[in-house]
Amino acid sequence: MNIVKKTVEFKPHSRNLFFHILTACNLKCKHCYINPEQHGTKTLDISTIKSWLRLFSHTDHSSAIKPVTDTNVIFLGGEPTLHPDLAAAIKEARKLGYGSVTVDTNGYLFNDILNRVTPEEVDYFSFSLDGSSSRINDLLRGNGSYEACTKGMEKARSKEFSISSIFTASRANIHDLPNMPGLLSSLGVSRFFIQVIGIRGNPAQRHETDLQLTREEWDAIVPDTAMKAARLGMYCTYPKVFLDNQEQFSCAGIVAENYFVFPNGRVYTCPLCEDYPLHSYEIKDNRLRKRPPLTEAQLFPLKIPEGCVMNRIFHPGNIQYGKTGNPLNIIACCMLKEELLSR
Ligand code: SF4
Ligand code: SF4
Q1: Which residues contact 111 (CB under 8 A, 6 or more apart)?
Q2: Atom 8 of ligand 1: nearest residue by CA position
Q3: Does domain 3-304+332-342 have CATH number 3.40.30.10?
Q4: Tell me: the pLDDT tens digits for 236-276?
């Protein structure tokens, strides 16, 4: 089998809408990034969801953003299947001509969602699973979540939906990552996304017992596991994290079209900014507006030797420096992925 590995560049002429339609969730995962203070606690009603979908669709885009030929939508929460009108939101996205529709779920699949939409309407249900057994997964995601998630995957496959799986790697579960490709393959998963909770490169901080990984821990396990998944026929991606010195740095906030929309109307273009009121846009009265400075947008163009400016600001511990004060590695954009697939 021939495995092709490449860095996934940001795609021109298309945009990705990461649409958090509510922040409520039935789980309390240890690494959950939802921050109600910053993202609100609202559940958007269906007419608001439809209006906001129109703002980002290529047929009726807002004047605040440039026209594109294609938009992909990823419905998120909280847990999006807790929304009683998720099925109507999916159908509306299709009607508006979205290029693809994905639902990220913890696997509980509330509101009978699998019986209210079809595989033609949903490109992928993407299941979050952080371990190959309940012992490991449930420690991070809560009791019973492994069983619910794997059962949800089986149900979705039995109804012929395509399914993917997201694994958030941390110190608590990285040792179990090599067990995931076999399990996911047996469940019929066709795409495997490995995410990282945070990489800390500073050896001085290694004694800390939090969930963040060192570069060495990451390098020792992730690329080999991705290769294993690709050999089993899965499309697999993982964050690039570091660039080699000859590789060109680019910031998705400048060259790509990613919109992270929250129920309180905040719209970010960099996921690292989501804990701060730095959002580039906001939706008010169903209109998308660019916010005045200072937002994330004024920080993206800052050219620094470390690469990603938000990593430098928010996670300086991720960066190692040499004796001359130069960074030893360039931190890649968190949206840049390595992609492996079999041909
Ligand atoms: S399932 Fe997702 S939204 Fe819910 S607690 Fe876990 S990470 Fe957060
Ligand atoms: S992670 Fe860094 S490089 Fe990527 S969009 Fe944000 S600021 Fe730009």
Answers
A1: 81, 82, 83, 84, 86, 87
A2: 32
A3: no
A4: 999 999 898 788 999 999 999 999 999 999 999 999 999 99
